[in-house]
Design brief:
About 20% of the residues lie in helices and about 45% in strands. The protein contains three helices and eight strands, in the order E-E-H-H-E-E-E-E-E-E-H. The two termini are about 15 Å apart.
Length: about 180
Amino acid sequence: MSISTTAAIQKYEKRKGGNMFGTMWLEREVKVPASGVWKIYGTLKLANIFVRTIPSLVSKIDVLQGNGGAGTIVELFLHPGKRGSSSYKEKFTVVDDEKRVKVVEVLEGGYLDLGFTLYRVRFEVIEKDETECIVRATIECEVREEYSANADLVSTQRLGVVMEAAALHLIQTYDNQS
């Protein structure tokens, strides 16, 4: 098989003021060169894969500002009946083509409407050798003390599904080019 998974690691700690800060991460090994994987993760193409992979959650994504680089703001529209907002906005705060790192932070709605003060996802494409790489996604979140029960809503599950779909897309595309 061309993909291997490292289980998600989750850790929460109480901060001054009572807020809970959480970190969790998930890795996928992909037998495609890091440069090819970054063409998906470092651009808006990952958002398209997100909509195609989890259509029951996200109905569409609009680009409000930018072209996929740092400073890009997107709005994700959720299907009715989902807990919280009907949409939320994210900003690409870092898109580093040299280090192959992308950081996305929720600006409005989504987890912020559920008592979170921070929800951030960091994607790293780490070269293993010239034919394969590791994609690591790290979620950082902070939830106010009075909403600490909502910390359980954060999971790497959906992110893992999107990473799996991106990996399969990349492998199929790469195999067809070989």
